[in-house]
From TrEMBL:
<dbReference type="Pfam" id="PF02491">
    <property type="entry name" value="SHS2_FTSA"/>
</dbReference>
<dbReference type="InterPro" id="IPR003494">
    <property type="entry name" value="SHS2_FtsA"/>
</dbReference>
<protein>
    <recommendedName>
        <fullName>Cell division protein FtsA</fullName>
    </recommendedName>
</protein>
<keyword id="KW-0131">Cell cycle</keyword>
<keyword id="KW-0472">Membrane</keyword>
<comment type="function">
    <text>Cell division protein that is involved in the assembly of the Z ring. May serve as a membrane anchor for the Z ring.</text>
</comment>
<dbReference type="InterPro" id="IPR050696">
    <property type="entry name" value="FtsA/MreB"/>
</dbReference>
<dbReference type="InterPro" id="IPR020823">
    <property type="entry name" value="Cell_div_FtsA"/>
</dbReference>
<comment type="similarity">
    <text>Belongs to the FtsA/MreB family.</text>
</comment>
<dbReference type="InterPro" id="IPR043129">
    <property type="entry name" value="ATPase_NBD"/>
</dbReference>
<dbReference type="Pfam" id="PF14450">
    <property type="entry name" value="FtsA"/>
</dbReference>
<dbReference type="GO" id="GO:0051301">
    <property type="term" value="P:cell division"/>
</dbReference>
<comment type="subunit">
    <text>Self-interacts. Interacts with FtsZ.</text>
</comment>
<keyword id="KW-0132">Cell division</keyword>
<keyword id="KW-1003">Cell membrane</keyword>
<feature type="domain" description="SHS2">
    <location>
        <begin position="5"/>
        <end position="193"/>
    </location>
</feature>
Length: 424
């Protein structure tokens, strides 16, 4: 299983799992992806460990059948809406006599940036470097190999409640899967659907889940704002169920099959026949269904718009990318949202065959983030040993993790993996 990268996204309504693999050209491929229903998580928080573990177990079994391997370990995403970002700066002296910055110096300066005061109920679970500074020269993304005396870093320290993180880890461990590392959810999503140019220019990710909506604002290559709304796609389902007097399961099927916005003035009277409990059939007025969906979608998006306008860099937001299974798959949502936001809107989907759905964005981002970290190590290793047989490294995938090897940590998990040593 060492050749595969397994990611698990624990959502409020679904558990998604994906398996990825680097091909011989160093490009990540999604080999298998699946999902299963989950009732043990609410608003991103595990409320029933046993139920969540069983959903994870079921999802992993489905993935094992797809790719024909035994899965024992995986990476998981930490929900951004449950996290807090604190700006910090770390400063160290370059240790080597010749003044060359090594991987060990980067580790020390990141550790120095984590020396901050935090509440008793929270833990530092990671750190995201924004820029490095060498002897006063800033805007440095990768300082390894450069020369200097003083190394600094401006970073964002990621905090989360200890109980929340513990319950996530217990849920996965109880399912028989070992957690190899955490990937910060906003970065995972960005990896899957955003380009570097968009992150630099100014973009907002709207991740609408079943019962909460997370808003992530990127500009200048970094995450500037995280905001959460405690409503999601389930509110639409609930409204359909109450107004049309049908079970929630039938309401969810109606939403997914017929959900549309912006068509009220174009539709003719139409009746939809559905099966309710005990095989009873019921006819639904299509126009009434559209009115219910459009009214709730308009309310949810208006709440998102209010959050966006509270951001200091609102005028710099050039695009809004919608992900998640909440409303992203409703027909006409892009045009409807553009009219409300007065900004360019698109639905973000991973560019992988079999995984091109908004609900798979996070789990694909996990796999891609880890593969980026592995690929970065591999490429640096090959460059250093260019006189050796390159095919050997492609076949074995073995990389010497000596601190003297200068590689670029492109994956977020590589920046926060030390959490597990400290946490346990």
């Amino acid at each position: 299983m060492n050749d595969y990268i397994i990611g698990i996204d624990i959502g409020s309504s679904n558990i998604c799992a994906a398996a990825g693999k680097l091909d011989k050209y160093g490009k990540m491929q999604i080999i298998g992806i699946t999902s299963s229903k989950c009732n043990g998580v609410k608003k991103g928080v595990v409320i029933d460990i046993d139920s969540t573990s069983e959903s994870i177990r079921k999802c992993i079994r489905q993935l094992e059948k797809m790719i024909d391997i035994n899965i024992q370990e995986a990476y998981i995403a930490l929900p951004g809406g449950l996290s807090e970002l604190i700006k910090s700066r770390g400063v160290v002296a370059v240790a080597s006599e010749d003044g060359e910055v090594k991987q060990s110096d980067v580790k020390r300066v990141l550790k120095a940036a984590k020396i901050i005061t935090i509440p008793n109920d929270k833990e530092i679970i990671g750190i995201i470097p924004e820029e490095y500074i060498i002897d006063g020269y800033d805007k440095i993304k990768d300082p390894i190999g450069m020369s200097g005396i003083r190394l600094e870093v401006d970073a964002q320290v990621i905090l989360a409640q200890s109980t929340v993180v513990n319950n996530f880890l217990k849920s996965v461990n109880n399912s028989g899967i070992k957690v190899l590392g955490l990937v910060f959810e906003p970065t995972a999503i960005a990896q899957a659907v955003l380009k570097e140019e968009e992150i630099q220019r100014g973009v907002v990710l709207v991740d609408m889940g079943s019962d909460s909506t997370n808003i992530y604002n990127y500009e200048g290559g970094k995450l500037n704002n995280i905001s959460t709304i405690s409503l999601g796609g389930n509110t639409i389902t609930n409204d359909i169920s109450v107004c049309l007097k049908i079970p929630l399961s039938s309401a969810e099927k109606l939403k997914k099959k017929y959900g549309s916005v912006g068509l009220l003035s174009k539709t003719k009277p139409l009746k939809i026949e559905i099966n309710t409990d005990y095989n009873n059939k019921k006819k639904i007025d299509y126009n009434i269904l559209l009115q219910i969906i459009e009214a709730r979608v308009d309310e949810l998006l208006s709440m998102v718009d209010k959050k966006l306008k509270s951001f200091n860099n609102y005028e710099n937001i050039s695009e809004i990318v919608m992900v998640g299974g909440g409303i992203s798959e409703i027909k006409g949502i892009e045009e409807f949202s553009e009219n409300l936001f007065n900004k360019t809107v698109r639905v973000g989907v991973p560019n992988y065959i079999g995984a091109s759905s908004p609900m798979y964005v996070t789990v694909v981002g996990i796999v891609k983030d880890i593969s980026s970290s592995i690929k970065g190590k591999y490429e640096k290793k090959v460059n250093e040993y260019e006189d050796k047989d390159i095919n050997k490294y492609e076949k074995t995938g073995k990389v010497n993790d000596s601190e003297d090897i200068k590689y670029k940590n492109t994956g977020v998990v590589s920046k926060i993996k030390e959490f597990f040593t400290d946490f346990f």
